[in-house]
Design brief:
The complex is a heterodimer of chains A (380) and B (400). Chain A is α/β, with parallel strands linked by helices and 380 residues long. Chain A has helices at residues 17-28, 56-61, 75-84, 99-102, 107-113, 138-144, 147-154, 166-189, 199-206, 208-217, 247-257, 260-263, 270-275, 277-288, 293-302, 313-317, 320-324, 365-368; strands at residues 9-13, 32-37, 66-69, 90-93, 118-123, 193-198, 230-234, 239-243, 307-309, 328-333, 337-342, 347-348. Chain A is 40% helix and 15% strand. Mean pLDDT of chain A is 93; it is low at 373-380. Chain B is built from 17 helices and 14 strands. Classes of the chains: A alpha/beta (380), B alpha/beta (400). Strand 6 (193-198) of chain A pairs antiparallel with strand 14 of chain B.
């Protein structure tokens, strides 16, 4: 058995990032993922920016998958899909509420044909409630969960959007976890089951300490984990984040910088430190502004102090640590050559990932839909 | 839920990124032995928010577990841990790299005692590489992995701190995923394995599209997936989000009914992004004369993304949250009943359950009787000797 999920077949009916990211992680782990696309191709294939007709966003989230094309608005194609269903262990879907029920692919229908199927439905807000039909966007989830509110503290009253598809990635993992548990359970008694994931609940649970702090202690902005000073300071070439959230870090920072202004006994009191945080950060900045961020990081790390360097993708893609760990891998993309992608974050001693390019639309029709004409010459 | 009820986890994790993982394993039915150091237990037990001397943060990620309190430096305690290994399926830990090995629980040793065991490491930067020794709080990872950088795309170049420990959370989920994958592999091969995840690899992984784009364009240039995609004030000064994919731009224009939006500066998404200040001003001129709930309803009826920026006070009283029974009321010893989150998924095969988090060493006798047939008198003797520990309060009185 070469990989953890070798031999597991996944029917991928997803069309958003959370679903695509989930099945990408499964493909990285060795599962056979078959993406069902409409005849004109998955909408994400058009996600801008597009180079020579190819969207790097699509190729990133769909590496290692296969593709078949079916028009799920047509009854005949839905029947074709039902025909191949027994070949799969798992369905992952993230379409708007009720879409699959509407075309006859509800769990209760398909479990009759395929009782051992594991069927995972990713939703924004769950089902059977007032929000079940709301359009789901990353910004909506960040706003409604209190996550945007948490940014207000630092940003002096303006919320900003967090990039990186945070909600999408969280939704992907929280789908995979119960799916893998269900796979383990199925080995014991053979039955499949339905899993429903609520992404809004995930973001809410992240914000729970803040909710509790407000509810029980009437603290609206709980700071940064209970200690001070914490905050961003400028260096010669960028910004670093000082993180004295535990007292030991503050003591070591004082010792390292050896500055009488920081040694003032009134700063022994954590309440006073929090009150004077802007002043303390300014004082620390005076020591660091002539150094590069990486010099600061090296000096702090040597002194046992935790610090973070604010980095953009350009900094990250030339990072020696990621390079040493082989965390950036090239994957061949037709017409564009080898593009760099982040490798799987799972390092299993007995499961080594193999990376394959994203499929052309319908590239695997002949393998799965024998009555189908394989349309040659399709492009990404 | 009972999917994993045949499994035993020996859990050394502390703080958040580890315990959130073993909370999920426990909630899926695994028997999780949370090994806690004598007197203070998991450092998270001192982590705010507090109620009196008790942390009400700690229980969130330790529901459904069993606590084994011990002096981890005592050779007798280390011997007990080794005796438990034949009964253990998964070992979890998030110490600094090298620590678990010093405790005598290196891969060779645990594997030789139990070839089916899965040893799972979790750390900030991984078990190798130049940054291996660096400690990583969530805020550090927000900076180093590009999360703070991603907010800069929208905030005019300033990084901001995000609440909710998003990097810890994502990391705990990837950790759980890696463990369950190794478990499924073991189910079919009979062999255990050693695995590791690290926050850096997990959090950067969210930026794969940006990485390949930066390579194609020679440098990183932000490309928003849509615009408008941000926050606007309503007439009462409350913020709401508006996200409009390209295919719905026409709909948004018709709702706002502002002729200035027909300007060619706003024709395509790239145009709108390039002229975002002018566009945001126009959109704000409309949002600031309406009420946020009305705006949200109008936009969503056309499929356009919208959301109210809710504060914690609003969430406590939120109708949706009440209606869906999001909060589970769970006992916290010496505090009372506190609301904690429901699991964000359901499984048709079994129901979720929520047993309160343990006190330090509360389950010493049960764990040692269950796996080692140890009589209660022996457990008590080991507690008197200082090998095992159980504490009444979840955090021990501060050190003298």
């Amino acid at each position: 058995m070469s990989q953890a999920l070798s031999g597991v077949s996944v029917l991928d009916l997803t069309e958003t990032v959370s679903g695509a990211y989930c099945t990408m992680l499964m493909a990285d782990l060795g599962a056979d993922v078959v993406k069902v696309e409409p005849p004109e191709g998955d909408p994400m294939r058009g996600a801008e920016p597009v180079f020579k007709g190819i969207s790097p966003k699509f190729t990133a989230y769909n590496r290692g998958k296969k593709s078949i094309t079916l028009d799920l608005q047509s009854g005949a194609d839905v029947e074709r899909l039902k025909g191949i269903l027994p070949r799969f262990d798992i369905i992952i879907e993230d379409r708007p509420h009720g879409s699959l029920d509407h075309i006859g692919l509800a769990y209760d229908t398909v479990k009759v044909i395929h009782p051992s199927l594991i069927y995972a439905e990713i939703t924004g807000f769950g089902t059977g409630n007032r929000y079940q039909n709301r359009p789901v966007y990353e910004s909506t989830l960040q706003a409604e969960s209190g996550m945007s509110f948490s940014v207000l503290d630092d940003s002096k009253g303006t919320p900003y959007l967090i990039g990186g598809e945070l909600a999408g990635a969280a939704g992907a993992y929280f789908t995979l976890i119960p799916v893998l548990a269900a796979l383990h359970e199925r080995l014991a008694h053979g039955a499949g089951q339905k899993i429903e994931v609520n992404i809004y609940y995930i973001l809410l649970s992240m914000m729970h300490f803040n909710i509790l702090d407000y509810q029980y202690n009437h603290i609206l902005y709980p700071g940064h984990g209970g200690g001070s000073p914490c905050g961003f300071v400028h260096t010669k070439d960028g910004v670093v984040r000082i993180t004295c959230s535990v007292k030991a870090m503050w003591d070591r920072t004082k010792e390292l910088l050896n500055d009488p202004a920081l040694n003032d006994p009134r700063f022994d009191d954590p309440v006073q430190r929090e009150k004077e945080e802007p002043l303390l950060l300014k004082q620390i900045e005076a020591h660091l502004c002539s150094m590069t961020s990486r010099e600061v990081e090296e000096m702090f790390t040597k002194a046992g102090i935790t610090v973070g360097v604010v980095r953009t993708i350009d900094d990250i893609r030339s990072d020696p640590h990621l390079e040493a760990r082989g965390q950036i891998v090239p994957i061949e993309v037709p017409d564009l050559g080898a593009l760099p992608y982040f490798a799987s974050p799972f390092r299993l001693s007995k499961s080594t990932p193999e990376y394959r390019r994203a499929p052309l639309p319908g590239e695997h029709n002949s393998e799965y839909l024998s009555d189908f004409q394989n349309e040659g010459g399709a492009s990404l | 839920m009972t999917s994993l009820n045949d499994l035993v986890v020996l859990d050394f994790t502390r703080f958040e990124a580890g315990p959130r993982c073993t909370y999920l394993l426990a909630s899926l039915g695994a028997y999780v032995i949370k090994v806690e150091k004598a007197y203070t237990g998991d450092d998270e037990r001192m982590y705010p928010p507090m109620q009196g001397a008790e942390s009400i943060a700690y229980p969130q990620h330790n529901i459904n577990k069993h606590s084994l309190g011990m002096n981890l430096r005592d050779p007798k305690a280390q011997q007990l841990l080794k005796q438990l290994l034949p009964h253990v399926d998964i070992i979890t830990e998030n110490f600094r790299p090298g620590t678990i090995e010093k405790m005598g629980l290196d891969w060779e040793t645990v594997h030789s005692i139990n070839p089916r065991i899965i040893l799972a490491h979790n750390s900030g930067f991984g078990q190798s590489g130049p940054y291996m020794k660096r400690a990583a709080f969530d805020s550090v990872m927000q900076c180093e992995a590009g999360v703070a950088g991603s907010i800069m795309d929208h905030s005019g170049g300033n990084p901001y701190y995000i609440g909710g420990n998003p990097c810890d959370c994502i990391s705990s989920l990837a950790y759980t995923t890696a463990i369950l994958s190794a478990l499924f592999q073991r189910d079919r091969t009979g062999e255990g394995q050693c695995l590791e995840v690290d926050m850096m690899s997990i959090c950067t992984n969210m930026f794969s599209p940006e990485l390949s784009l930066a390579s194609l364009e020679g440098q990183y240039i932000p490309h928003p997936s849509m615009y408008p995609n941000g926050f606007y004030k309503d007439k009462d000064g409350k913020y709401l989000s508006i996200s409009c994919p390209d295919r719905l731009w026409g709909e948004l224009k018709s709702i706002l009914a502002l002729s200035a939006l027909e300007d060619e500066r706003f024709a395509t998404r790239d145009d709108r992004w390039a002229n975002k200040e002018a566009l945001d001003e126009l959109i704000s001129s409309w949002t600031t004369v309406h009420q946020c709930e009305e705006i949200c309803a109008a936009l969503e009826s056309h499929g356009i993304g919208s959301g109210l920026v809710k504060g914690y006070d609003e969430l406590i009283n939120d109708e949706y949250i009440k209606e869906t029974s999001y909060f589970q009321n769970i006992e916290v010893p010496y505090v009372g009943v506190i609301p904690y989150p429901s699991l964000p998924f359901t499984m048709s095969g079994s129901e979720a359950f929520y047993h309160r988090a343990p006190k330090i060493g509360e389950d010493n006798a049960e764990i040692l009787a269950r796996f080692l047939n140890m009589p209660e008198s022996e457990v008590e003797a080991l507690e008197r000797e200082g090998v095992l520990y159980h504490g009444e309060h979840s955090c021990y009185p501060p050190k003298k």
